[in-house]
């Protein structure tokens, strides 16, 4: 199982889109373990959205879609609803 996820940093009003096969471990990495990543600058991150896929290729395709202008608008609308 693969997951596409959206993290949100309320302090910086930024979001991050990624994919993983281990969501819990990846979130821990973004918030605690990472030392050089872009995500370290905007901690803490909140998990605000996930989708699950049966294949890596499907998850990668959706991740790329969410990183387009249309995908980012979808994410912004979703965040305004919360």
Kindly report how far apart the N and C termini lie.
26 Å
* Number of helical segments with 4 or more residues: 3
Order of helices and strands: EEHEHH
**Assigned CATH class:** Alpha Beta
Estimate percent helicity. Answer: 40-55%
Which regions have little confidence, pLDDT < 50, spanning 5+ residues? none
Q: Structural class, from secondary structure content?
A: alpha+beta
Beta-strand residue fraction: 25-35%
Average pLDDT metric: 93
- Give the strand line-up of the largest sheet: 2-1-3
Number of strands: 3
Query: What characterizes the major β-sheet?
Result: 3 strands, antiparallel
Q: Would you spell out the secondary-structure blueprint of this structure?
A:
Layout: E1 2-9, E2 14-20, H1 23-33, E3 46-53, H2 56-66, H3 69-81
Antiparallel strand pairs: 1-2, 1-3
Structural commentary:
With 82 residues, the protein is an alpha+beta fold. It has a single domain (2-81), classed as GIY-YIG endonuclease (3-Layer(aba) Sandwich). It contains three helices and three strands. It has helices spanning 23-33, 56-66, 69-81; strands at residues 2-9, 14-20, 46-53. It has a three-stranded antiparallel β-sheet. A hairpin with a 4-residue loop joins strand 1 and strand 2 (14-20). The mean pLDDT is 93.
